Amino acid sequence: MPMRVLGAALAAVFLMGAAAPEDDPYTWMEEIEGARALEWAKAENARSLPQLQNDPRYAGLYAEALKIATAKDRIPGVWFAGDGSLRDYWQDADHVRGIWRAASLDSYRGGNPEWRTILDIDALAKAEKANWVWKGADCLAPDDRLCLVNLSDGGKDAVEIREFDAAAGKFVEGGFRLPEGKHRVDWIDQDTLLVVTEWNKGEVTTSGYPYIAKLLKRGQPLSAAKQVFTGQKADGGYGVQSIVLRDPDGKVQAVVIQRPLDTFNAEYYLLVGDRPLRLDLPKKSSIQGYLDGRVIISLEEDWSAKGMKEGDLVDFDLAAFRNKPAALTPSLVLRPTLSQSVEQVATTRGRLVVALFDNVKGQVLSFRRANDAWASTKLDLPADSTIGIASASEHDDRLILNVTSYLTPSSQWLADASAGKPEQLRTLPPRFDASDMKVEQHWATSKDGTKVPYFVVSKKDVNLDGSNPTLLYAYGGFLVSQTPAYAATAGKLWLEKGGVYVVANIRGGGEFGPRWHNAGLKLNRMRVYDDFFAVSEDLIARKITNPKKLGIMGGSNGGLLMGVALTKRPELYNAVVIQVPLFDMIGYDHIGAGSSWIGEYGDPKVPEERAMLMSYSPYQNLKPGQPYPRVFIETSTKDDRVHPAHARKAAARLKEYGYDYLYYENIDGGHAAAANLNERAMRQALEYTYLMQRLMD
Question: What angle do CA 188, 190, 192 make, to 5 degrees?
């Protein structure tokens, strides 16, 4: 599930925690790679795929999607490395799994980068006869030479970790290595790791994440690691994690242990030697970084005792805390207005940098501390865009920024956070003809009177006669914001062909900070769905579309949203794309990593929360004889986060009740439902073929 909190990785999770409901005839589908479940999924693929792939439009859509996905003129996602180079991970038609590579900043700025391959995942997979999917690398500051490479089998969250020498371009013989698992690993120094993993079988929380932290020395077997912290098996969230705070020269200033209590509440401990010292921080807060002796914190709830508000960015003096641990004193860095939210925080050598949104439109502020106060300047970047901080240099104050909006091709910028006008490095070539298109922001009124914004992307001369094929996308959870982004695939496969594309900024997300998210938690969950229905009805009232021409799409938590829309308001929609969804919200806490999300949805074992879950859980609310449109359900066998059982059981229940539906289960792909670029293009072509059949035919 997409998350602002850190996701991560363990082997495939089967049944955990609470027992499955005894009256559920489809619990056998919860065995993620069980023979019966896979046989059923393959049969469903064989039935559904020809209905889409035999459509004469499918081949063209697939070719267009693949061309976009594998284009060599994409903007590389570079980041600053400690050795002075820029690194990125690149995929194209020749490198379907991808290569990790590096180039000098000068050659990159000159437009003709001299790339050096660090690691070729296609070649590695071929040599080892493995289905490796890149899951990133954690490198040791300050030079980033020694790295912990994360390799996933088929796209699972679970990874195998191997130590790699980025300068030599090879794995370190006898180096650090961890078998497949949902590990959390941080470098302390070149000979020491802080590792959180399943040390002994069963030492994971009820959601399948590790909770015991140990220091592992080079050359030691895992059995010899020294324990420094333990959470509890009943802890929620994503398992114990470490946060290593370093100065710009790579020296460790503090090691903080985060013990999640549920999805969003956590305790923080400063590791003093091998002794944890509790930090008196609010349970809903996040450590964002370290600069000039101060620890930067974002607040997701009020810190009333200190005069701080939900959404504030604050800091505290680390040395003062060490001297008087009971007297943690924060100071205010930034207090967003009601229309603003802090989306990203980064630090350079001497600057604190914040990506801020105001009414879902981005800007970047550079802060400098002087005379015990923070002062900011706004970087000169394109307006009405999403601006993301891709990388912040530890050696100076330079930044790599990504700028994107719905119709303007994405661009990449090099900026100095301390001075000067940002320099544009790259611009993506147009992927579709947007010359006759426009973007508008509208506001719908939800059931409780809350104003909910949404963006509409369409032809300039769109007829407001209710006849436009319209695709509405939303997510609505986990503080994840749906901000403007260049609609390359949707533009080519949908907008160019006369469709309208809509993105709704419903509650549950982070578009207006923690208050927007907190408003839709647990017992207040129906607000999220009411917001979505309000946007849907507003599109119809404005005569942009009508229910026969309105389709919806969402994945993961957004897949749950699609299921709720299907069961609660089927009369509003004629197409529903349900991607890697949650669906059984009464049993979700024992399926996959489900219990880690109790802080978002509530606990089925708590009567009041169970009643709310039962009121909207799509699986329990599917009924025969309803006006459900023909839905398209997608999942992945390798999704060890949400788990394919949700999608499988949804399809099985629809079949039981006699409904027509389409189902596709990618045997690889993890929670993204696509392990490589070819699979991603196939999934997109399937989706838009389905949408055309339902909304354009």
Answer: 50
Residue whose token pair is 């609505």: 476
Three-state DSSP at 473 gives strand
| Structural contact between residues 406 and 455, judged by C-beta atoms closer than 8 angstroms | yes
**pLDDT value at 18 more than 90:** no
Q: Helices (DSSP H) in 110-201: which residue ranges? A: 121-128
Cα separation of 383 and 403, whole Å? 9
142 prior amide bond cis, ω within 30? yes
The structural domains of the chain, with segments of one domain joined by +, span 36-67+431-695
Q: What is the pLDDT of residues 434-488, one digit of tens each?
A: 999 999 999 999 999 999 999 999 999 999 999 999 999 999 999 999 999 999 9
pLDDT at residue 67 is higher than 70: yes
pLDDT of residue 17: 32
Q: What's the pTM?
A: 0.91
Of 95, 590, 646, 671, catalytic: 671
**Structure token pair of residue 549:** 């021409």
Q: How many residues does the chain have?
A: 697
CA torsion sign, 298 to 299 to 304 to 307?
positive
Query: If you count DSSP H runs as helices and E runs as strands, how many of each does the chain have, helices first?
Result: 14, 37
The answer to whether residue 672 scores a pLDDT higher than 60 is no
Distance CA 203, CA 212 (A): 8
* DSSP type of residue 336: -
Q: Is 467 a catalytic residue?
A: no
Q: Which of 242, 391, 410, 556 is catalytic?
A: 556
Q: Give the C-alpha separation, 505 to 481, whole Å.
A: 7
Strands 631-636 and 661-666: parallel
Q: How far is CA 651 from the centre of its chain?
A: 25
Contact partners, residue 56, CB within 8 Å, separation at least 6:
none
Gap between the Cα atoms of 289 and 348, Å rounded? 10
Instruction: Report pLDDT digits (tens) over 213-271.
Output: 999 999 999 999 999 999 999 998 899 999 999 999 999 999 999 999 999 999 999 99
Residue for token pair 């985060």: 258
Clarify whether 556 is annotated catalytic.
Answer: yes
Amino acid at 522: K
Read off the amino acid at residue 444.
A
> β-strand 631-636 against 575-579: which pairing, if any?
parallel
Query: 98: phi > 0 → left, psi -120 to 50 → alpha, else beta; which?
Result: left
Burial 182-220 (b: 16+ CB within 10 A, else e): bbbbbbbeeebbbbbbbbeeeebbbbbbbbbbbbbeeeb
Whether pLDDT at 25 is above 50: yes
Other Cβ atoms less than 10 A from the Cβ of 300: the count is 22
The number of C-alpha atoms within 13 Å of 263 and in the hemisphere containing its C-beta is: 23
Top-level class of domain 36-67+431-695: alpha beta
